[in-house]
Amino acid sequence: MRPVGSGRSPRSxxxxxxxxxxxxxxxFTGALSDRYDLGxxxxxxxxxxxxxxxxxxxxxxxxxxxxxxxxxxxxxxVDIHQxxxxxxxxxxxxxxxxxxxxxLGYEVTEHVGGTGIVAILKxxxxxxxxxxxxxxxxxxxxxxxxxxxxxxxxxxxxxHDVPVMHACGHDLHMASLFATASIMARGKSSxxxxxxxxxxxxxxxxxxAKAMLADGLFTRFPKPDFAVAMHVDNLLPxxxxxxxxxxxxxxxxxxxxxIYGKGGHGAQPHTTIDPIVIxxxxxxxxxxxxxxxxxxxxxxxxxxxxxxxxxxxxxxxxQAELGLxxxxxxxxxxxxxxxxxxxxxxxxxxxxxxxxxPLIEHYEATDLVYNDPALAARLKAAxxxxxxxxxxxxxxxxxxxxxxxxxxxxxxxxxxFTLGGAxxxxxxxxxxxxxxxxxxxxxxxxxxxxxALHTGIAAEVAVLRELMK
Length: 469
Ligand SMILES: [Zn+2]
Ligand SMILES: [Zn+2]
Fold this sequence. Notes:
This protein is of the alpha+beta class.
């Protein structure tokens, strides 16, 4: 375990979590010392420092506030990281978060849309603002080598033994939300309104937001005026946050294609119709959809993430299954790609003389997340004030899926932003060598917790205080 406050000092790397005065005091020390005698300079520095402290406090969490809650947040992070749970099975995770939020004075309701939790803190008249974290982990075997790496295995929904890892950073989101909840509960004079914290299950399977809404998230509880969520990734260095006004990500569709053949002996292929060969042709032809069918410049991704077929080298199986993810960012391109997948899967089966057409199941679909541009502009200013201008970056849309779009689809203006998670030194080295750091969902995904968690807390508090000032 990497203890808080030991090891490499984030301050020495110039991380903004220590820079609540927008870059520290060196700039005015230098500027003033040329023109003032020492006594005047110290007095002026004191006044200026005090003023900047007040400004920083009004706009975001100051270092002291974050430091006060950090050890508990870090402990929660490590605990949740070591005990990950799969989508829709986050019972222990939800219970831990619920207990902590309850102890802070929040009114907590559990089992909303399955394992979801809703924590409400009322603080007079004002807007209702929702801050959401995900609860779930992924069936990935952790290979980070961290002292607190997950060793958990469990049975998935199909009864298979699978490893489990917080490979998407949802553990960090939970720790940040808990610390933010604590700062907001302690400092009720800095905001007014209703704070609505949501622990959402099953983000990775895209069912959690839908299930919580179906279970009355916006009817049994106040419908928020704004919905906010944050996601850590390795595309930015720890210490920074990224904003995407307008389109944040892409439409995502999950498909399962079962290809039927005729099984038999591997040495007598002429007596069979080999579904593995049909699958192989199908996979390659599917790649011509983005390359040859979609207009150049339009976003379209067709990925076959798994192929399941066969049991033994000399047995030709009678069916093969493909798992696809499809990403687009325009409705017409989405329809074009989905129609092309159906056409190609059917045609390849027919070309091979398959006994029947493949079964194509479109089992998951999420719409892209749209960040309200006016809201994004307002919160960009608040984040710049809290973290420093150079630590707030405008980013391009990224091809990931996110069911936060379901909340936005209810007519709630949304703000979904990214939190830099990359170790700043590794980030710089990767950039210099033109390589990429492990992405979310990689067995090697390991955000640089300190300072990323500090920045996450400071950013969330800044956003909430701006919306409820
Ligand atoms: Zn993920
Ligand atoms: Zn995620």
